[in-house]
Specification:
This protein has four helices and five strands, in the order E-H-E-H-E-H-E-E-H. It is of the alpha/beta class. It has a single domain, classed as Transcription Regulator spoIIAA. It has a five-stranded parallel β-sheet with strand order 4-3-2-1-5, with helices on one face.
Length: 134
């Protein structure tokens, strides 16, 4: 008797999520640039929106200053991801200060907050790059 060989791991999502990496200090001026970077990750090169089942992750582990400007950026990034096929933004490597602030302003229910460190296909966009500086 012969059994066909299965490739890959069972019950594992084969699609690698898109990852937007946010580092440095996020200012209000950086928010439009971060939103544009996320839109670029969500769109196929032909301009169509990618499969809604594709994950959308935002790694905020490299953020050096947690404040309301960062919270505003996360809220706007969440809107961008929802407008691109109803996706939910997942935050990774969330500092405890940011988690507390998201809870305080009520955004913890709007975005998925996780602490994974799994790498994906991403863009290393720092707040400085989005501002046009550093």
């Amino acid at each position: 008797m012969s059994f066909g060989r299965r490739t890959g791991l069972p019950d594992v999502e084969p699609m690698t999520p898109n990852v937007l990496v946010v580092t440095g200090r996020v200012t209000r001026a950086a928010v439009p640039g971060l939103c544009a970077e996320l839109e670029a990750l969500l769109d196929d090169p032909d301009g169509s929106v990618r499969d809604p089942d594709t994950g959308v992750d935002c790694d905020v582990g490299g953020v050096v200053h947690v404040d309301l400007a960062l919270v505003e950026a996360i809220a706007r990034l969440g809107l961008v991801s929802r407008r691109a096929g109803g996706r939910r933004l997942r935050l990774r490597n969330v500092p405890s200060e940011l988690q507390s602030l998201l809870d305080l302003v009520g955004l913890a229910d709007v975005v998925d907050v996780g602490c994974g460190t799994e790498a994906g296909t991403g863009t290393g966009v720092g707040a400085e790059a989005a501002e046009g500086g550093g």
